[in-house]
């Protein structure tokens, strides 16, 4: 004790700060702090994954009505079961079963606080001493943050830009060893805008079976496919290798703030039960928070009553925006898009620093772009690809065009003479 002050024994967990530093939110916050307060133009958000602020992306009336009805009923102000209320789990099982060669049961479905809690749940369950997990590069950095927090070793396999961002399956086999427990597949792709074919996904499942690992299939952008390749859920191949499907209503219904996700077992052979994974998963959910009960109660109505016109409208907007984004990128010499996006809400572009003066990497590019043009773009380092950029096209068309024109002007000022 010095000068009468007690010798405090508590300390912060520094690991939390280290983990949060590699999240999209953390990096976007840093970019937002670099905006020029004197710039009178509206900021253009080309770095986010939340288009709900734009009127053209308003959710379906059936979804809004479902939530209102659930609240006004007075029946869903209570705590729910840790795995979710039965009507919601049954509705999600039926919804997902439409695309599968077998039928899911409500017991295969666990409801979560958005897809992020589903990620947290399964990575915590798999984080046994010495275990490692295979993550895509580029990928969604929340997996890195949660794995780091859980002391689960991360190993990265490449997605191949010249092959439509397909998985480097040989690379997967080379990375795996006796301590590898799972590989993560994000389809439709965040951040690449890719949509994997049936044939490629089958090869992924066969590789997982050969290695004795599960597939964690992140399908939060499920059905948001607008190119030539239709969306195929990884669960189709659950009889080849066990699949845990992560999803939510956040993206397809444009309601990320409603925080309703799921973690679903696609494992007709029962391997996940036999190895104790399902028991451990329930144990995690027993000590975690649940999605709001009234949102759970709205799920059956949301899934059953949303008409096809709503989905078609969203797909048309995304397709048009992706086309415009791809075409406008061709007009900006310092960035190159290896493949036109086929789904999701993002595209990856390669940054050619040799054409720029006074910009050393993707982070500096994004910081200066924010300051000079009030445009927010995510640096590729955030998703595992240094000197690339992730651009979202899930905003209204006029804002998208404005933002890309500002990037073009930014290039003009910083181009090497």
Automatic annotation (TrEMBL):
N6-(pyridoxal phosphate)lysine: residues carrying this PTM: 251
This protein's record includes keyword Protease: no
CDD domains in the record: AAT_like
Source taxon at top rank: Eukaryota
Classification via SUPFAM superfamilies: PLP-dependent transferases
Span of domain Aminotransferase class I/classII large: 42-407
Keywords: Pyridoxal phosphate
Cofactor: pyridoxal 5'-phosphate
GO molecular function: catalytic activity
Swiss-Prot/TrEMBL GO biological process terms: carboxylic acid metabolic process
Family of this protein: Belongs to the class-I pyridoxal-phosphate-dependent aminotransferase family.
Protein name according to UniProt: Aminotransferase class I/classII large domain-containing protein
Organism: Eucalyptus globulus
């Amino acid at each position: 004790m010095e000068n009468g002050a007690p010798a405090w024994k508590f300390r912060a967990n520094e690991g939390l700060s280290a983990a949060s530093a590699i999240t999209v939110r953390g990096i976007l916050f840093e970019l937002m702090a670099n905006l020029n307060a004197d710039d009178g133009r509206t900021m253009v958000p080309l770095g986010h994954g939340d288009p709900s602020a734009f009127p053209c992306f308003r959710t379906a009336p059936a979804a809004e009505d479902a939530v209102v009805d659930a609240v006004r009923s007075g029946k869903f102000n209570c705590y729910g079961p840790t795995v979710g209320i039965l009507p919601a789990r049954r509705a999600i099982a039926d919804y997902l079963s439409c695309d599968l060669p077998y039928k899911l049961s409500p017991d295969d479905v666990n409801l979560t606080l958005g897809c992020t809690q589903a990620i947290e749940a399964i990575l915590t369950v798999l984080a046994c001493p010495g275990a490692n997990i295979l993550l895509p590069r580029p990928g969604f950095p929340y997996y890195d943050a949660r794995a780091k927090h859980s002391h689960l070793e991360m190993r990265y396999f490449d997605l191949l830009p010249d092959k439509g961002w397909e998985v480097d399956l040989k690379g997967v086999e080379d990375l795996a060893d006796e301590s590898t427990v799972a590989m993560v597949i994000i389809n439709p792709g965040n951040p690449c805008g890719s949509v994997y074919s049936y044939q490629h996904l089958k090869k992924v499942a066969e590789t997982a079976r050969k290695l004795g690992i599960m597939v964690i299939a992140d399908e939060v952008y499920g059905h948001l496919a607008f190119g030539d390749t239709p969306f195929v859920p990884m669960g189709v191949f659950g009889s080849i290798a066990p699949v845990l499907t992560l999803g939510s209503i956040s993206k397809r219904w444009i309601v990320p703030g409603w925080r309703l996700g799921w973690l679903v077992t696609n494992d007709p052979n029962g391997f996940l039960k036999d190895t104790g994974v399902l028991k451990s998963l329930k144990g995690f959910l027993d000590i975690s928070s649940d999605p709001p009960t009234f949102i759970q109660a709205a799920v059956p109505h949301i899934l059953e009553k949303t008409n096809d016109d709503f989905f078609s409208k969203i797909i048309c907007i995304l397709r048009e925006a992706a086309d415009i984004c791809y075409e406008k990128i061709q007009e900006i010499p310092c960035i190159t898009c290896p493949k036109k996006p086929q789904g999701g809400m993002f595209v990856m572009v390669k940054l050619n620093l040799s054409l720029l003066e006074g910009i050393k990497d993707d982070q500096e590019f994004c910081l200066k772009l924010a300051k000079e043009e009030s445009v927010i773009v995510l640096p590729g380092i955030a998703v595992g690809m240094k000197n690339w950029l992730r651009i979202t096209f899930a905003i209204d068309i006029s804002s998208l065009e404005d933002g890309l024109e500002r990037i073009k002007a930014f290039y003009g000022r910083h181009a090497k003479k």
